[in-house]
């Protein structure tokens, strides 16, 4: 072998070594600090993308083995969550980098935001509220009386209904539970008027569970009838009924916009004493969303020397759906209805974006 050949071979080997070193330098590495020393860790793997998730799902759909298919789907869901978090982080960093020049945050459309206008919707003007301020609940808001409630049920109630009535008695101050036995609602209305009660709550059953709620304001009405669903007692949410104190709670009614909705909100307020006892830190909430009224009962707690507060749900919880509003006290035969949806549902619920409360 000549000297020129050996030099040529040496030069070729040297070029390949340089190329390998250049390739190694291109791989990104992360610097970590361990016990005060700066150490380079392994290259960072790129965050998964939506295409990776779709590819893994397509692979899972073609997998004949049921066990492997289930594992691939679980991996694909985790990959989807990682891709979503990575995309959110990227957008957040871009917005921070742009500062004031960042595009406005997009707000998704919901059924509530796309709600159809209602002719009975109240905007808060004084002339719209004049007759509302002089309705059947005006004496309560003038503090002319204090509420006194009777809670009853249908004849021979089931155990869950009895427990639900008992928990309502703990939540609503100055309320009492009575068993109807063979007494009619009309007869109970007459007796409660004579004894000075202001409201009657009747829990009806459906398939041995609480199914509807009748709310009658005394002495002149009105009477509200609701469908009752999703009843969860205190024990179902892993709470102890002994946490419910006898203090008068604060009452919050939210998102009641129409005339019927405002009337219902005033009715719920009239069940509780107008002056709450803040030392008990109890809060009762009636929240209207898409004509479903959600009831929640909380106690707020202060943390870190009063700098932070947290809510603790006490129970019970349930959901109401309005079926009718009747003038006066309960009368199933000759009663006059202000609002009713029974047998008119297809006519009144013509759109998913149309709400009545």
Q: How would you describe this structure in keywords?
A:
alpha+beta; Rossmann fold; 2 domains; 9 helices; 32% helix; rRNA primary transcript binding; Ribosome production factor 1; IMP4/RPF1
Output the CATH homologous superfamily of the largest domain.
Answer: Brix domain
**Are there runs of 5+ residues with pLDDT below 50, and where?**
1-25, 29-35, 37-44
Please report the total strand number as a whole number: 13
Number of helices: 9
Cα separation of the termini: 99 Å
Structural class: alpha+beta
Major beta-sheet overview: 11 strands, mixed
At CATH level 2, the architecture of the largest domain is 3-Layer(aba) Sandwich
- Taken from the alpha-carbon principal axes, the silhouette is globular
The rounded Rg comes to: 33 Å
* Structural domain count: 2
CATH class of the largest domain: Alpha Beta
Strand content: 15-25%
Portion in helices:
25-40%
InterPro entries: Brix, IMP4/RPF1
Domain Brix: 147-331
Region (Disordered): 1-46, 60-117
Biased composition (Acidic residues): 1-25
Architecture overview:
There is one protein chain. Helix 2 (50-62) packs antiparallel against helix 3. Helices cover 32% and strands 25% of the residues. Mean pLDDT is 83; it is low at 1-25, 29-35 and 37-44. Helix 8 links the parallel strand 8 (250-254) and strand 9 (282-289). The protein has 2 domains: 50-97; 126-348, Brix domain (Rossmann fold, 3-Layer(aba) Sandwich). With 357 residues, the protein is an alpha+beta fold. The protein contains 9 helices and 13 strands. The relative contact order is 0.10.
